[in-house]
Amino acid sequence: MTDPIADYLTRLRNAIKANRRIVELPASNIKKEITKVLHDKGYIQGYKFDDSGVQGTIKIALKYNPSTKAPAIVSLERISKPGLRKYVKSDNLPRVLNGLGIAVLSTSKGVMTDKEARNLNVGGEVLCYVY
Fold it and tell me: What is the reported pTM?
């Protein structure tokens, strides 16, 4: 697999389109950090890391609106790809939907959103947009 983050986002996207409540993914450290960011920002209901076996798995409980059954995540878009990495400086951080969405960045201080990176004045690699 050449791009595990794209696979992670695609599995989440497919589970949302199929109206699944729980999705199970192969784990890695970067996927765990992205999952924590999505949970902290309210895009997923919960998660559980299972480290049994060689690689381990991540179980994610997806979040839906109870009355309209609409998912909390409307779009997941991969930005930085293995063939073309996208790096930004602290003064050029992206704004997703004029601040309504989040950009997930991998910085020297860890994986965080664009708003947290702006507050810490750090740049990094733009992994994905979520809204």
Answer: 0.95
**Token duo for residue 116:** 């947290």
The candidate with the shortest Cα–Cα distance to 101, out of 81, 76, 124, 119, is: 76
* Segment 10-36 mean pLDDT: 97
94: left (phi over 0), alpha (psi -120 to 50) or beta: beta
Across the chain, where does the E strand assignment appear? 22-26, 44-50, 57-62, 76-78, 87-88, 102-107, 110-113, 124-130
Helix spans in 1-131 (H): 4-17, 29-40, 114-120
Contact yes or no for 104/113 (Cβ under 8 A): yes
CB-based contacts of 17, cutoff 8 Å, min separation 6: none
Mean pLDDT of the chain, nearest integer = 96
